[in-house]
Amino acid sequence: LAITEQPAPSLSAQGGSQEGDPFAAGLDPLIDRLKQKMEQNPGDGAGWALLARSYMGVGRYAEAAVAYEQAANLIPNDAQLLADYADAMGVLHGRKLEGRPEALIQRALKIDPRNVKALMLAGTVAFNRDNFAQAVKDWELARANLPENVDPEMTQQLVAAIEEAKSRLG
């Protein structure tokens, strides 16, 4: 259960590429052009981050993880970038956040202890370890820092996750 602030349900919710999605298919040539641009200008961290997010948007998770790695090497102190990278790796590895993704989440939280996505992912790690008190703490801090214009469905998911963790606390 990776709870992320991705726009559109097509990202982490579904797995695999968006076969038959005309919007995603229409993005492929643009993404390929951006990839060529990045190969010509490999020092552009923001470009790599854009490429990574584009790959995530069309369900190309393995390529997203590679692009996130490039971006994170060039922009090592961007909490959101590290949280997005951890999320991509989690999706790629069957929703598992242990190991490298967890290390990225912890790095992101050291940089920005209020980063919503990093807190959501950290809460998921804690929940999966049956550390429900920590999950509640992480998720409530995430909820307190949600932007005002956040999708109401995301807020509902977060509230439901907090309630689930609290109910498991007993």
Topology record:
Blueprint: H1 22-40, H2 45-57, H3 61-74, H4 79-92, H5 100-111, H6 116-128, H7 132-144, H8 152-169
Overview of the structural elements:
By secondary structure, the protein is mostly helical. Helix content is 68%, strand content 0%. The protein has eight helices and no strands. α6 (116-128) runs antiparallel to α7 and α7 (132-144) runs antiparallel to α8. The longest helix has 19 residues, at 22-40. It is globular. The two termini are 21 Å apart.
Characterize the main sheet.
Answer: none
The proportion of residues forming helix, as a percent range, comes to 55-70%
Shape: globular
CA gyration radius, whole angstroms: 16 Å
Query: With helices defined by DSSP (H or I, 4 residues minimum), what is the helix count?
Result: 8
Task: List its traits.
single chain, disordered N terminus, 8 helices, 170 residues, mainly alpha
Quick description:
The protein contains eight helices and no strands. With 170 residues, it is mostly helical.
